[in-house]
Amino acid sequence: MGKSCLIPGCFTQREYLVLQGVTSEWLVASVAVGNRNAVQARSAPEKRPNVQGRERHEKNCVNAGSKLPSPECRRSWQKFSITDCESDHGLLITHINQAHDLLRVKDTAVVCPRLKATNDWMQSYGLESLKLTLDDLMKRGNVVLDANEAEQIEFTAEAVADFETRLHAAIDLYDKRIQWLLQDSRKLFGVIQGRRIGVLIDTSNITCGPRLLDFQKDLLRLVDEQLCYVKRLYFLSFGTEASPLWEESRLINVDVLYETRQWVKSLKPSGGCNLLKALKKAFLLKELDALVIIAGSCPDQSSEILSDYIQQCMLGRELLIQTVAYECSSQVPPAVLKSVAEAVGGHYHSCSTRGENYDSSDLDMILHERRRAEDLLSIINKIYKGKVGHACFSLMPESSTEIVPLSPACLLPKPPNHEGPLVIQIPDFLAKSSAEWLKTNGLKAKKLSLYQVLAPNAFSPVEEFVPILQKTVSSTLHEKAMMQFEWHDGTIKNVHVDPPILYDYQKQLSRAVRKYERRIEWLSVRSRRLWGTVCERRVVLLIDISATSSMYIIHIQHSLRLVLEEQISSKDVFNIIAFGKDIKPWQPEMVPSHPDNLENAWRWVLALQCEGTRNLMSALRRAVEVDFQDKDKHESQGIYLLTTGIPDQDTHVISSYMLEVCGGCDLKLHISLFSTTDSSLDGVIPPRYASPDEAALAFKTIVQAASGRFHWFGETGIYESGDISSILSEMEKAVNYSHKCALLVKSLKQRSGNQLAGHLIPGEDVAMLEGRKKRKPQKLPFPKPTALTLARMSTRDQRDGDRNGSLKVFTWLPTSTKAEIPPAQPIKEFLQMGRRKKYKSKKCPEVSLSLLYTDKGKKVGATHKKYSKPKCVRKAIPFVILPQEEEQCSSKEWLSKFSIKKLKLDLPRIIFGPECLHQKQMVGSLRKKVSAKYCNIFPSVRMDGSVKHLHIQPKDLEEYIEQMERVLRCYVKRMQWLLSGSRRLFGVILEANICILIDTSGSMDPSLEEVTQELTSLIWEQLRKNQTKFNLISFAEDVTAWQECLTEATDEACHDAVQWLSTFRAHGNTSILKALQRAFLLQGIEALYVLTDGKPDTSCSLVLQEIEVLRKKRVVTIHTISFNCSDRGANDFLKKLACQTGGRYHRCHGDVDGQLAAHRLLSEGFKDEDDPVFPLFEGDDLKTLAGEVAKARSYLMQAKSFRSLLEKKDLDHKEHSA
């Protein structure tokens, strides 16, 4: 606190007291005596005697670094007074150093007057208060007319230079304020506002655990620097319970501050973070006007509960809520506190000195004002570019002065060679709409309809009346030779299925679908993406130039350029009509489309200015009554309308008019709707307003009346197109036909069995199989059996019969002199006996048979021995070994080592064995199925649709529950790790040589700053730490690379990369394919990380095909990151791209809820299977791990329920025994 500030305009604590007037007497004395005496006074401070409380306060000030004495501490020769002292307005200076001190104090008074809140400070030093807004700049100019009688504003060089100087001074002032806010206690707690303040301090185990001393030290600085200047104070600490310092708020004095310091030093960790209980006590004090909540951990209650309670308590009461997130390593506590503050209209502050992360409503307010000042400077730079002599010129602004200073055509970004001459292309084919094209290329035209293919072999069922039976009888031949199939008219026909014909038909369908995909890709590029296909020979283009389209005039001009170059050049005649409130035709009537006319039309389009409303009815009347006045005498005539919103007239009025004029002639109206995200009204209120969906519905109605086509597109791509919808419908029909073919062949196979499969094998494969059969070695014949072998076989075959019967083999007795072998059986009978033995040996025998020669009579004897069935041996609960640190790998790879199955903690496998299944057998005498005798001894549970018995002890279940809770904690910590830092958005960087592709198209403009911050975090947190070679590529309409090759992640390279990221500007389309092709050229590249917020500007299937071709030359993994994208089609494309290349798909969705759920699980334990629950993650890593967590929680809850069941069973058994 005692150290001097490093920047001009900041001050120490005692200097602030000077500013506040506490030592104003001493300051006057210092001015009169001179700077030298003042310095001597500073160097010899003295303590005031006999005042114990004031002495402690003075001692604290001295320890804080103060070097200025109080008035009572001045020496005797310094004690004098000045009477009748008038202000000298800074003119009385006795020493040059004193002048510097006075100027510094003056600057300090501007930056931080009386610790004023930032919102109050902005009322005095904002751009409006300083008169530095765009309106103030415009007032300095004079409106003049140029040679073309167009309005311009003329500025003098002195006026613009003075305005620019004042803007630089304002920006410097904002920088000083920001640096002041990031010093001392303001850095950690912000600027505390209010006069009667209640302070709620979090003393949970997380906040006051290992960092208790630092927390107490920072709180003491807060008390000494800010809280000592308020009027009343109230302190309360909260952990699991809430503990106030006083029951009521106290007036500030020395004793109260001393008691506060001692209380802060005595703070101890106290369990959880029950903020709701603390709020209930604090809201009982009605005299407070501000409430400061300081927390370093996540509250036990959700932000919704806390916000609702605070809003209810603040009804009819003015109370400012300020939340402070103190040194939080996780992102969840700051997010919760910020949400609470925003919900109740308060202020928030978050600071993490480890990661140098700051988030504060004060900083946001100043940074916003600073950005406005920088935007004004950029406008002034553009004014300077039009400098002539001693004056500066610029066009009169026509849109909202808060958004653009000049006309949109001057300030909006333009495509390359936007104002250059046209590059006319003459198409070498006749343009057709999709409906006309399908008449020659559709499935029906190509005779590829399934009903056309099956018609020659399809027969209607024959039904005839049989007089003898007196009823109608149907033929049944189809049941054996044909398949029944539903026809397109709903009737059932018997179809003879020929698989080779259907297989060839499916190949033709596949070729047709590929052809349709190429047609869709052709319709999705260049001018067809904006206008569709211009088919007619006589064309009039209607262009909407209303005031609401001013921000998109460049888009409109560019779309006109494309259609003039590519499609209008092949027409007979054409004309262009621009309409806003008034109608502006290019020519009085239609003219031939030769290159000179096209170039003149383009020059006329470049001069268009947006103004007025959207008078579509007058434009249509002008086109129909002038350009198409002879519409009955000509064919192939079309009106193409390009508009950005709903017309001024009602829909039914325009529809009725177009239905009338288009009837009886070949004239059609086609509409292209360009949906814009924002619009500038420029003070003009349109007669009608409609959402984009409502506008699209209205134009569809008009198009239907005029027999035309509707095309709807925006900055991100095509939303709806009649041409593309027709092709997609034909593709769906082809897929449906192919699916029905597959069902027919499948049904035929099920009916005919394996016989059909044999017929379908080609001849060459059959010959090869026969050759294999011929080459297969033959089995050797069995050896000649002996008598003992025959006896075993015969006895085993008859073991289910009469075991006491005499055996023929046993009656044979070998003589002592002649040991003859009885004649063997024929080989055929012996082989049959061997086969019987083979089949019966598969069953586990219940009786063991041993044959032997007896001593008496030398006979053959048999011994039978029964064995009990094998019992299931229960496996012991394994002790799992879990990782101590997080591994840099994907969730799939990580779970291959630590999944539940890999750790052998699968609950059904541990608990249930082969004999656990509950079975019932039929008892003949009772004529019903009954359970086993001892079934009621073991508890029964239903598992996977069957009833099983629990053969496990409660202590084993206790061990299993303990192990599963350890595994779950490891899983949840891994989830927290994945949701923190740059891994939240990009996942874990696995490869050593990577390239990051960043989308900087126009749709990324609102979130480009956030993307830059995330990329900066990624560079320092993962790439620099892991020494990864990397490169950066930004892509919009063009592709820009940071370096030409991969670069080592050194400190210098990382700094340079971060600086390059700050130059991003959002504009244009999304050329993903170009960026990927550029990245594949990098030497040594292993993986690409593609960050985008939408679909590419080309076909998704085309991108996937091209990437497959590139991967054949070089195998590169592509990981995709979906950023703030809610388009399901775009996300599906990114998933396919990652899956096709072996990469991972990431989407930052539900990260805050996931962090909160993980925190609750670790703090509250695993008590419930469904609360808290993780959000539905879509990213591969988070989704895989969340699924394993859900499985583990399910097993844990089942194990606890089984334990309760066993304990209840034991208790019932004990009560029954007693």
Automatic annotation (TrEMBL):
Q: Give the domain of life.
A: Eukaryota
Q: Give start and end of each VWFA domain.
A: 993-1189
PROSITE patterns per the record? Answer: VWFA
The record's section on Gene3D superfamilies has: von Willebrand factor, type A domain
Q: Which InterPro entries match?
A: VWF_A, vWFA_dom_sf
Q: Which SMART domains match?
A: VWA (SM00327)
Indicate, by first and last residue, each region the UniProt record lists as having compositional bias (Basic and acidic residues): 44-58
What ranges does the record give for the region Disordered, renumbered to this chain?
39-58
**PANTHER family given for it?**
VON WILLEBRAND FACTOR A DOMAIN-CONTAINING PROTEIN 3A
Q: What is this protein called?
A: von Willebrand factor A domain-containing protein 3A
The organism of origin for this protein: Eublepharis macularius (Leopard gecko)
High-level lineage: Eukaryota, Metazoa, Chordata, Craniata, Vertebrata
